[in-house]
Amino acid sequence: MIGSLPMLRGLTGFSRDWLRSDIPAGLSIAAVGLPSAIAYPAIAGLPPETGIYASIVAPIAYAIFGPSRLLIVGPDAATMTVLAAAMGTIIAAEPAGSSVDRVAIASALALGVGIFCIAAKLLRLGVLASFLSRPILVGFFAGVSLSILVGQIGRFTGVKIESEGLIAPLVEMLAKSGLIHWPSLILGLAMFALLWIVKALHLKVPGPVLVVVISVVLSAIFDFRSWGIAVVGDLPSGLPSFTLPAFHQMPLDKIVLGSAAIFLVSFGAGIVAARSFGSRTGEEVDANQELVGLGAANIAPGLFGSFPISVSDSRTAINLSTGGVSQLAGLVSAATLIAALVFLHSALRILPIPALAAILATAAISLIDVHELRKIWRISRMEFIFALIAMWGAISFGVLNGVVVAVAATFAYLLRQTMFPRDGLLGRIEGRHGFFDLQRFPEARPVQGAAVFAIQGSILFYNADYVRTRLISVAKELPGDTKCLVLDASAITHIDSTGATALEAVAEILVGRNVIFAITDLTDDSRTILERAGVIKTIGAQNLFNGREEALRTLIGDIDQTGNAATAGNAF
Which domain of life is it from (predicted)? Predict the structure, then answer.
């Protein structure tokens, strides 16, 4: 019955045999997710219970509407950092002295992110996930991680830090070094060290779980509150309740802009994570379908007093490693967290804040993917530079503005790749079919009486002037016996009106030199543009050909060295 409902794709083909795999997986997900659920809200100044609420309602919503069987959604450090920046902008716009409901603002942003997801799905904008390339995301998250690390200074030391940014809080900390609460700092550093020891020893018990258990036990035994060590405090023992944020009391323009920024980062990072896990499991990832699941998984926390979420790397990894086979594992994890909220709230309320700071600091460091940065450096120096630009943007301009810098860097990179399309003069090699780039193949020779020029890339407004300059440069250097210049347009996917004007300028120069300008392999769309622009009239419709060989046979009677028309493609 479940499998017949299209909205329950993650439970398609449900079998009772799955319980043996999904129940242990769900318990493991809850065990790993509980520490981060309590810790992550602190990044945005939200109460700990909001993280538990998000970890309950988001997986339930995704299990109903999400397309993946294995992805687990939940609080995410990077998304929380962008949320914190968006909330800071909104709160700054509130009148001085007015009371601010941070939970309501976070809920409104979660609803906004969910609405953006659904709207993007309706418009089939899953391609938006590609706007933040892998190098850009790696660099951006490295910058975000540094912001998170700086944000933990106050929680480690017990000193109230009022400065923002990267350097200012460090300077303020130095100035207030005499106020450091040493028991808090020692506890936080000890828990931080414990996390790395667990990781280094590859223990089966997750480090965050061990930190929570040990720190709660120590807090109960030694009464950390009496030492002045901050603890989580009271947590609600009941379930989250339905609440609709009061949008009319908030600056809607900033809610929309903040939601858009969170949506772009959380969806972009979520799809990268989904595709990474999909490559391991063979599960196809449809970005447009994921928009529905992520939209529902953000709307649910927005309606139950929580904040935006994304695909959780750690929870999904636990699900895969423990043998989870369906979204039942996510439902089991939600049920487990409900039980923890009801029965363990007394223990969680004495959880020390420095222990949570250690968990957050470790999570932040894990966002710095040094291996991937090295890989990017090895593959492409240019992409590495753009990764650094994205990292610098998040650090220097703040996380929210860093999103803008990251997107701008992506577009700058794309423009850089297409502004100077690859081109070259082609010739023949004796005894071989086809055409070869004269620069790459020294043994290649120009075709007698003709010039064959290839461009690999569209001719659009931002590169038309470069293409025009290149073609005119080639035209001016043609030998005196050249009868025609053949433009190989087989790799030109699109020409706009500016590109048509550039080609017309080249055609007019060639006409003045009594050289025929011929074009081969035009796409239908490009031909239509050139017809409307009058370019084809200038060069003559008879000078449009279906291939280089046809053009050369017609214009100069050229045949290749074997006596047959060449049929091979470019070695270009």
Answer: Bacteria
